[in-house]
TrEMBL record:
SUPFAM superfamilies: Isocitrate/Isopropylmalate dehydrogenase-like (SSF53659)
Database matches in InterPro entries: PdxA, PdxA_fam
Parts of the chain that traverse the membrane: none
Pathway: Cofactor biosynthesis; pyridoxine 5'-phosphate biosynthesis; pyridoxine 5'-phosphate from D-erythrose 4-phosphate: step 4/5
Protein name: 4-hydroxythreonine-4-phosphate dehydrogenase
Compartments, record wording: Cytoplasm
Pfam families: PdxA
Phylogenetic classification of the source organism: Bacteria, Pseudomonadati, Pseudomonadota, Alphaproteobacteria, Rhodobacterales
Length: 333
């Protein structure tokens, strides 16, 4: 059975997402089956496009242009300037994409960037971001954000909070759940049967025996010991000093690094592979990837946006969806 195409959302139409979708089609052609959910009048039309009535038409349409499943927006689009009138439609496109993957009409969701302020102002959007909204639509309480590239996979345990709040938010339960979800994602979506996970400390030098902080002794080490004792299907190493975790020799020793806060995880991957990093949400009942950048209003409409991250996000979504489909086939016999 052939894999259903990927549903690519338009994201904030005033950003670079639509331009990137057209560039991704130009680069990928028919090699990765996907379709865009968008208002066709918002497209830059730098590439040919084909309006489709159903996702099942996408694969054939790719021979002639970018397949677009039309979704009407109430206002025209001005590059670089979000219109609050379009906010509700941006949310509807995300909901529509998730509905299609839940029904099996799409194999995965790939999301173009949104602007949270525009959604809050125009649609009363109450979620901190894409990830939390997708968890709500998927009916799960906790998900994990992974940034992945060929060189490195990183997972921040705490994400979009002030650095001063990290020690308060960093609980044993949160760290346990993050590691478990990461291990399962590496198995299910990346085909790593016995994942090796490196875990960073919170403090410089991983606390240096308590001289620079005690979170490693008081909580992190105990969590790692307990998890390793209860589950031998993944290997944990840590807590490790974050400043020595990301050179080439160190990276060869693990499949993913679990970090304690946002920048501890994202600085290394963005330094090593800025353009190819992909945002992956682990723990959802469906595959979701996204390019690792924002709406970039400052360059929207100028034709200079770099599409590599979206291209990699579509390729990874296809790979992950293929793995899940193969696992379902093996399970059903």
């Amino acid at each position: 059975m052939s894999l259903a195409p990927i549903a690519l959302t338009c994201g904030e139409p005033a950003g670079i997402g639509l331009e990137l979708a057209e560039k991704a089609y130009a680069a990928l052609g028919t090699s990765v089956p996907f379709f865009l959910i968008a208002d066709p009048t918002h497209l830059t039309q730098q590439q040919p496009y084909v309006e489709i009535a159903h996702p099942s038409e996408a694969i054939a349409a790719l021979e002639n242009g970018l397949p677009v499943l039309p979704h009407k927006f109430p206002a025209p689009n001005t590059a670089g300037k979000a219109d609050p009138a379009n906010a509700r439609a941006v949310v509807e496109v995300i909901e529509r994409a998730v509905g299609l993957v839940q029904s099996g009409e799409a194999s995965a969701v790939c999301t173009n960037p949104i602007n949270k302020k525009a959604l809050k102002d125009g649609a009363g959007f109450e979620f901190p971001g894409h990830t939390e909204f997708l968890a709500h639509l998927g009916g799960v309480e906790r998900v994990v954000m992974m940034l992945a590239s060929e060189q490195l996979r990183v997972v921040p345990t705490t994400i979009h909070i002030a650095l001063k709040d990290v020690p308060k938010q960093l609980t044993a339960e949160l760290l346990q759940d993050t590691i478990r979800i990461t291990a399962e994602g590496l198995r299910a979506d990346f085909g790593i049967s016995n994942p090796r996970i490196a875990v960073a400390g919170l403090n410089p030098h991983a606390g240096e025996g308590g001289a620079m902080g005690t979170e490693e002794q008081d909580m992190i080490s105990g969590v790692l010991r307990a998890l390793q004792q209860e589950n031998g299907s993944f290997k944990l190493n840590g807590p490790l000093p974050a400043d020595t975790m990301f050179h080439a020799r160190a990276r060869a020793g693990y499949d993913a690094a679990v970090c304690m806060y946002h920048d501890q995880a994202l600085i290394p991957i963005k330094t090593l592979d800025f353009d190819r990093g992909v945002n992956v949400t682990l723990g959802l009942p469906f595959v979701r990837t996204s390019p690792d950048h924002g709406t970039a209003f400052d360059i929207a409409g100028r034709g200079i946006a770099e599409p590599t991250s979206l291209i990699e996000a579509l390729k990874l979504a296809h790979h992950m969806a293929s793995r899940r489909a193969a696992a379902r086939t093996e399970t059903t016999g």
